[in-house]
């Protein structure tokens, strides 16, 4: 059966220049950003046709390069399941991979395994005990969660998976896997599925929300599309997943019948009596500015929740129709503090006032002003999480704006890509620089990473930036793909890189390239990072980000693919240090190195304040444990010599952190 594709417009942003010869320019080269659809393709197969065979994996040329801070090795990979083709893993916003710390399990949601009976629209769950996840024998890939044979709607696609562990439960078989995603009838999207089952394979429930506007091609009818974005379960017994609300039939020449109608927050409340989830929907709408060709200046939304489920955020990247700064794209955030009972739009912020962002970006031409341009949606990805302090983290690409005009269509940005974590604080916003991104996004149409048959089913490839955190929210990790710039200027030979951030101490890890120099070098296709980082307590603690990749021998999008669990993408407590933490300080203060250093009993350092402030000083050992804390209230403007009494500290390396408001500066000191 001939394969066809359907593209619906959920707005995202990528670079305007993609040809290899176009990107070989200086670091401040200028490009014009363009709007691009999310455009997940429908790959339509005959249910009775066996998919193309695959081999274990295909290797690209080995890359040896110093384009990351340091290198570590993925020790091995484990086959965990297969799918009919690559489309189900092509969108990083579909959270296919997740983990549960209490049950010590990892779970990967994917379309039906290659060659299985029943049709390609069935959705499976592959799971394993985390401690044994590097053994293929530990993985169970037989649990069918969404079974189209029991429904009148076939064609489950793009699965997003969650684990729900009822309060007090310690038995894996009594926990639930929850899966959602869009449904196709073979030519168009016709609704969304929500399915659940416990790991024993009992209490299976399939729930479908059909979309009449799609079935009947009703012009102007809005519908929920792609309910598979940033899924997450929370401790209050709720499964959350975001869907877009769009109009596929909006006339292309009108500004009154716009394409996007916001997002839909889908909440599934666990019913302990029926052992299933009761689903409800809440619409959140952002009014973007828009042009005269039905093109809105904004992206589809993303979502994240606190672990207890009380605080949630929905984030758009775009140009707000009411409040704008510098005519650029920036985060537009909606927040709930009552478990989704009500949502409030946060005040739009001027992110050009954050020194940690502007320090990494070039200024506007013929000006000293630095204006950030945020990228979201399609392209290099965007990752969200909520930490232990209920603060939102937005990991995304930011470029400097080259010129500012009153017309967003005329906006130009510098080509150099920077990755940041932009996060809320008790007083506003701050940012952490993650790393520079070397490779440009491959567009499916012009420079496909994987070719399809027909060519309309080509797949592009970006950085797939994703965020993971420990269950307690005290450590946040970033994971993304990049290509050695000495090999290609497009992200055509991806390796997987990661970095960690401790939100309590502000310590960071170096950027680590986990696949360079391994058999998986330059072939980390369609990487997924779990939203939950697994912690193995010890001396020191080990933090593992469950990670998968997907591949086939031909690297063809329409052929069968194999999914692999990567062993192991891990950091230890010792990897966290004040590396680059001084960048977190704004102009509110400066902190000198202690003197003398090394020392035996006491040492001093100078804190300079630009305004009257409360100053908190904390001392940590190399395990990140707090060993000393002092508070100094209402210190006046000027320089203050602070003395630390270390008589009770044993010899060794320590870190002293000085906090003023939301700014923290950390230095090393040595006790003899």
User: How many helical stretches?
Assistant: 3
Question: Can you count the beta strands?
Answer: 44
- Level of helix content? under 10%
Low-confidence stretches: 1-28, 32-71, 213-218, 250-258, 580-586
- Indicate the structural class: mainly beta
Mean pLDDT: 81
Query: Which percent band covers the strand fraction?
Result: 35-45%
- The backbone outline, from C-alpha atoms, is globular
Our measurement of the CA-to-CA distance between the termini, rounded to an integer number of angstroms, reads 75 Å
Sheet with most strands: strand arrangement: 4-31-30-29-28-33-34-37
Report the biggest beta sheet as strand number plus sense, adding barrel if it closes. Answer: 8 strands, mixed
* Gyration radius over CA: 25 Å
Give an account of the 3D structure.
With 672 residues, the chain is mostly beta strands. It is 2% helix and 42% strand. Strands 4-31-30-29-28-33-34-37 form an 8-stranded mixed beta sheet, with no helix packed on it. Strands 2, 22, 23, 24, 25, 26 and 27 form a 7-stranded antiparallel beta sheet that branches. A 4-stranded antiparallel beta sheet has the order 5-36-35-32, with no helix packed on it. The chain is globular, with a radius of gyration of 25 Å. Mean pLDDT is 81; it is low at 1-28, 32-71, 213-218, 250-258 and 580-586.
A few lines on this structure:
The strands form ten sheets. The protein has an eight-stranded mixed sheet with strand order 4-31-30-29-28-33-34-37, with no helix packed on it. Strands 2, 22, 23, 24, 25, 26 and 27 form a seven-stranded antiparallel sheet that branches. With 672 residues, it is mostly beta strands.
């Amino acid at each position: 059966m001939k394969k066809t594709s359907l593209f619906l417009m959920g707005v995202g942003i990528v670079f305007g220049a993609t040809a290899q010869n176009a990107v070989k320019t200086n670091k401040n080269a200028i490009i014009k950003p363009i709007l691009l659809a999310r455009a997940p393709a429908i790959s339509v197969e005959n249910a009775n046709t066996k998919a193309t065979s695959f081999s274990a994996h295909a290797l690209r040329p080995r890359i040896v390069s110093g384009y990351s801070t340091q290198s570590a090795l993925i020790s091995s990979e484990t086959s965990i399941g297969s799918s009919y083709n690559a489309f189900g893993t092509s969108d990083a916003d579909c959270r296919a991979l997740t983990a549960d710390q209490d049950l010590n399990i990892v779970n990967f949601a994917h379309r039906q395994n290659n060659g299985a009976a029943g049709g390609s629209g069935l959705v499976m769950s592959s799971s394993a005990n985390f401690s044994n996840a590097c053994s293929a024998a530990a993985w169970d890939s037989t649990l069918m969660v969404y079974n189209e044979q029991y429904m009148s709607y076939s064609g489950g696609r793009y699965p997003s998976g969650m684990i729900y562990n009822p309060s007090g439960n310690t038995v894996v078989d009594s926990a639930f896997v929850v899966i959602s995603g869009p449904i196709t009838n073979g030519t168009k999207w016709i609704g969304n599925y929500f399915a659940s089952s416990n790991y024993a394979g009992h209490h299976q429930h399939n729930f479908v929300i059909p979309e009449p506007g799609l079935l009947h091609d009703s012009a102007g009818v809005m519908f929920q599309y792609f309910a598979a974005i940033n899924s997450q379960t929370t401790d209050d017994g709720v499964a959350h997943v975001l869907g877009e609300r769009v109009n596929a039939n909006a006339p292309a020449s009108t500004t009154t019948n716009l394409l996007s109608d916001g997002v839909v927050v889908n909440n599934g409340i666990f019913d302990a009596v029926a052992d299933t989830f009761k689903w409800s929907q809440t619409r959140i709408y952002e009014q973007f500015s828009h042009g005269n060709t039905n093109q809105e200046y904004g992206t589809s939304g993303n979502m994240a929740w606190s672990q207890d489920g009380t605080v949630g955020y929905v984030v758009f990247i775009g140009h707000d129709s009411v409040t704008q700064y510098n005519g650029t794209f920036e985060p537009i955030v909606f927040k709930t503090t009552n478990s989704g009972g009500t949502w409030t739009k946060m005040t739009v912020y001027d992110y050009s006032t954050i020194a940690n962002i502007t320090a990494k970006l070039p200024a506007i031409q013929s000006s000293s002003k630095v204006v950030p341009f945020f990228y979201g949606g399609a392209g290099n990805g965007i990752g969200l999480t909520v930490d232990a302090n209920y603060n939102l983290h937005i990991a995304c690409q930011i470029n400097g704006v080259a010129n500012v005009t009153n017309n967003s269509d005329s906006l130009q940005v510098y080509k150099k890509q920077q990755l940041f974590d932009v996060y809320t604080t008790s007083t506003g916003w701050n940012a952490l620089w993650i790393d520079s991104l070397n490779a440009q996004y491959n567009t499916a149409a012009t420079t496909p990473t994987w070719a399809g048959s027909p060519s309309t089913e080509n797949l592009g490839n970006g950085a797939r930036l994703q965020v993971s955190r420990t269950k307690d929210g005290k450590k946040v990790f970033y994971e993304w793909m990049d290509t050695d710039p000495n090999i290609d200027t497009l992200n055509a030979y991806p390796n997987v890189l990661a970095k960690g951030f401790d939100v309590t101490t502000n310590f960071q890890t170096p950027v680590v390239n986990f696949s360079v120099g391994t058999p998986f070098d330059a072939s980390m296709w369609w990487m997924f990072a779990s939203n939950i980082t697994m912690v193995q307590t010890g001396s020191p603690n080990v933090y593992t980000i469950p990670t998968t990749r997907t591949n086939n021998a031909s690297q063809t999008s329409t052929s069968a693919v194999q999914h692999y669990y990567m062993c192991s993408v891990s950091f230890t407590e010792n990897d966290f240090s004040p590396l680059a933490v001084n960048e977190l300080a704004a102009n509110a203060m400066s902190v000198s190195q202690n003197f003398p250093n090394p020392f035996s009993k006491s040492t001093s350092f100078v804190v300079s304040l630009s305004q009257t402030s409360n100053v908190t000083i904390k001392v940590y050992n190399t395990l990140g444990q707090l060993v000393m804390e002092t508070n100094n209230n209402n210190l006046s403007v000027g320089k203050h010599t602070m003395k630390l009494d270390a008589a009770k500290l044993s010899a060794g390396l320590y870190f002293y952190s000085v906090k003023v408001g939301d700014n923290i500066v950390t230095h090393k000191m040595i006790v003899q």
